[in-house]
Amino acid sequence: MLLALFAGTLLVVTTACSSAPESAEKGAPITLKVGSQPTISSGNLYVAMAKGYFADEGITVEIVEGMSTDAQTLVATKQLDAYFGSLAASYFNGVANGLDVTLAGEIGQIAEDKRPNIELLVRKDGPIKTVADLRGKKISIPSGPDSSTGWMVDLLLRQAGLSLNDVEVLKLGPSDGVAALLNDSVAATISYYPLLVSLLEKGDIVALDGMSEAYSNSANAFSIGPSLTIDNRDAGVRFLRALYRAVDDLKGDYLQDPEISKIISDATQIPIETVRKSPSPAYHKNLPLNAKSLNALQDFFRSRGVLKYPTNLSIEELSDQALMDEAAKSLTH
């Protein structure tokens, strides 16, 4: 579904300042298409849109929902300009084989109070009481096992001496995964905030302990394609600059801020009371990529035998730091 969100924008990245660029005039008007999902991790995206930071840059963003990890191919072929979502082994294999898609910044990480924005859910009245009980059972992961979410589930399982090799993974969307859990088709399923709030409040589903530690290793990042790195780098700079400005609005437990919680509620169509009960993902200045986690993620994929290149890709090979630096330096402070 293609949605033009708010009057002028999209995405997220960050710097320390909410002020408009000091020297740059509004660039040539441009419309960008971004694959994304209405989750709490994209809160900075919605804030940047609602507060007009993209409009200040002459950017209108159309969000394309329902994207899977295969969306990276759409970014490379300029059918999308950017993508927010789980990183998959297919992305790294693609880059190693010449796929023209670059990582441009982190997305919302674990909250400052250490609450993750995803959980592995089980039935409260079911046989699964601990992570160790999942051995030999079916679990649902929306992006599949060979994704950054799959890696986090593997890290959770390893706390109990297990791994993804000890369970059967089904690739079901969040809603389908919950339905499968409730009809006993799977023993556990991954779900996301703020949808998690209502699921947990009903009382028939609970979250297994340990996801906070696993999620703290998250390597999720958003990516951009050649339309912003080659064809129109000025638009790429403006795009990132608008995202950086949003970070200054997202400090501490910002979901308790009436203005911020309303922006995210309006964007996700989730009741504001539910949004306020969700963890507030942390965003760092200029949305830096985590080289250590990206390397560890590749190690995980390699251990599963799904990488088709011999040596891990470096952060320099995966990102366009020059573009990110230019966007950050052009902001006022």
Structure description:
By secondary structure, the protein is α/β, with parallel strands linked by helices. The protein folds into 2 domains: 2-111 and 218-329, D-Maltodextrin-Binding Protein, domain 2 (3-Layer(aba) Sandwich), CATH 3.40.190; 118-215, D-Maltodextrin-Binding Protein, domain 2 (3-Layer(aba) Sandwich), CATH 3.40.190.10. 36% of the residues lie in helices and 16% in strands. The chain contains 15 helices and 13 strands. The strands form 3 sheets. It has a 6-stranded mixed beta sheet. It starts with a strand and ends with a helix. The model is unreliable at 1-18 (pLDDT under 50).
Labels describing this entry:
alpha/beta, D-Maltodextrin-Binding Protein, domain 2, 2 domains, 6-stranded mixed beta sheet, 5-stranded mixed beta sheet, globular, disordered N terminus
Q: What distance lies between the first and last C-alpha atoms, to the nearest angstrom? A: 38 Å
Question: In percent, how much strand structure appears in the residues?
Answer: 15-25%
Following the backbone from N to C, one meets helices and strands in this order, namely EEHHEHEHEEEEHEHEHEHEHHHHEHHH
Write the CATH homologous superfamily of the largest domain. Answer: Periplasmic binding protein-like II
**What's the CATH architecture of the largest domain?**
3-Layer(aba) Sandwich
Mean pLDDT: 88
